[in-house]
Amino acid sequence: MSRAKLRNALYAQSGGATAVINASACGVIEAARRAKARIGKLYAARNGILGALNEDLIDTTKESAAAIRALKHTPGAAFGSCRYKLKSPEEDRAKYERLVEVLRAHDIGWFFYNGGNDSADTTLKLSKISAAMGYPLSAIGVPKTIDNDLVGTDCCPGFGSVAKYVATSIREAGLDVASMASTSTRVFVLEVMGRHAGWITAACGLAAERAGEPPHVLLFPELPFDEATFLARVKQTVESVGYCVVAVSEGVRDAQGKFLAEAGSVDAFGHKQLGGVAPVIAQMVQARLGYKPHWAVADYLQRAARHVASKTDVDQAYRVGQAAVKLALEGRNAVMPVIVRTSDRPYRWKIGVAPLDKVANHERRVPRDFVSADGFQITAAARRYLAPLVVGELPPPFRNGLPAYVRLRNAPVRKRLQSAFKA
Amino acid sequence: MSRAKLRNALYAQSGGATAVINASACGVIEAARRAKARIGKLYAARNGILGALNEDLIDTTKESAAAIRALKHTPGAAFGSCRYKLKSPEEDRAKYERLVEVLRAHDIGWFFYNGGNDSADTTLKLSKISAAMGYPLSAIGVPKTIDNDLVGTDCCPGFGSVAKYVATSIREAGLDVASMASTSTRVFVLEVMGRHAGWITAACGLAAERAGEPPHVLLFPELPFDEATFLARVKQTVESVGYCVVAVSEGVRDAQGKFLAEAGSVDAFGHKQLGGVAPVIAQMVQARLGYKPHWAVADYLQRAARHVASKTDVDQAYRVGQAAVKLALEGRNAVMPVIVRTSDRPYRWKIGVAPLDKVANHERRVPRDFVSADGFQITAAARRYLAPLVVGELPPPFRNGLPAYVRLRNAPVRKRLQSAFKA
User: Fold this and answer.
1) Strand ranges, E, within A279-323
2) Last residue of a domain, one of B288, B304, B320
């Protein structure tokens, strides 16, 4: 079979970057390279689905094997990502048709979309529309999200590494606060991501292995925040342990459903202040209890922290990338490789397959039985679930004392369409 | 010589904890244990100088060799620290006399105080007063501060690890922002410590190895902040690179000397908001330039991040601890072991000795020739100075996916004085 007749493939990254989304890219690319008898060229869309719409494609075959291997230890989204949600085919018909037009122009037979539930939705719709338009396409999702909120999979690649980062960081900061509490900081507040689902907040709880160890209070977005109960717990903790460490989800809301981060704080000009629930909590502790607080907002640091990634997470991210190519070559469509847990202790997992219509637009929150009755701690069940996900170290190579991350050439593919896309 | 006749030693930790102050403790304790023919018991003061004032001492001989070894990889201050500055002997005479009384009660012949320039000052004064009171004491400082602002030493144990952490983190977050910039975050702001000296801010600059790499803008506490110049640079960077990463010192001030972090932001109740210059900068970028910002405040995470400590820093912290004991045994008094750099490339250093009166109460800021003319970058001279300090990895052991840090027993020493100290 001559190479010219092989159809090409397209990979794209979507939504927030993670420490390991490039490990999935590595899995896709290496598997596609090994399948050179079946797959022509693997392209990547620059900046996610926008690159596909704009016919702004990258030729991954121009990257060396070493560069692709280095993706496995490089955070961020190496081909660029985007926050861009396609609406329903009824509302956004022209965009879906444009996508199929671009795929057709480059003879794309396989499309891999690496993202969360929005991306699963886009992949599913593209799969249906291409079929309706008579364009043969295998559209495969590749799971990714630090929020761990995808259904149909035991966990989401990206989450285990954030979990390891936040648990490590809060353990370390907890030792610091414990040192200082006699004359200085009594309460430390760490704000973590997870606007709707408290998985990252829950992961902070892994740092405490024995009674009294930090973190002492977890604030979940799934539970309404009650100031009096919270302050009473902080006071009780300081009085018994000497200090108190709090992990708070950026998405914590009061009983009226209002985000605490938008508690009406304004700057000198009367502008509403940008986010940050940690300073709100710290201010509350200082004003109501008189304890000196310190606070940190990890923000992107947590989801980019490849230097302390979970080996389990990296392995799973790589494996779902590989598996996506395998599914594509088996002729599967509108599916996503997922993580199936077969045993807690010892931890065992395998790759399964979920249909995209079971994944798209659903959101998995932390179940109530993973949180203690008082709402401030994780339960043994949560620990059993979370613990294996942070296991193992696979640090990047360091050069001159800093992690050596790869920047790809990202050589563009020559455009074949005359028309440009107007978003 | 019978063991009963040997004089004892006292070690105390002071000021903010670091990732490696316990490595210095390890150096002191291991050296004291090896000198068992000369030194009786090594005690530690609980919570720094307060423990000495309160006669609240810890018997380090109750700790196993393994526990002491583990201090070398454990952040925080294992014996507790404090923020408590003794005033002049004229103002605080009773406290200095109390200190000598406690030292005498426990037959302390050597005092090791591990801290910054305030601690050097306290150590110096204690040395003088004990001499005036006819109490024989060898008082030795052990350098420590993440701020790197001690004079008389090439660098300060604690700084290299923060430097490695912030440079690593901003490199990682930079890759994340670069991924997202096409449709989402354009500007990322990381706030770092260093209220008066911008060494940590400067260290962020190590992450950028080639033109255009993040961080693009550094904001030093040594230079007055000018909003227009800053915003112009951010705009120019976004227009040329696509995004902009900013590292800002918590201590940045405007031309009138007012901290930006206190820019008049108030919460819903009209209370002044607690610190946080990163949200102020982010708000400014959003309001004036319309770019979507994200911001992080590393706070204690940066100075507790033993998981990504610099091996150079750990080695130096350990060595100054050892050296302090050696100096004490040589009969030196009112001195501090310091780091002397003998070569930049290859980096070579040795232990030197500084008299405490040269160290106490001085503060070393970032020299102007370490900052580019425009004030937003580090120079080649700064890079030459900073680069070796972050080199080398010496991660802690991990257990179940998280760093395994030691908690000491911290068994109390029986009090010998009848009176309690009233601060």
Assistant:
1) 293-297
2) B304
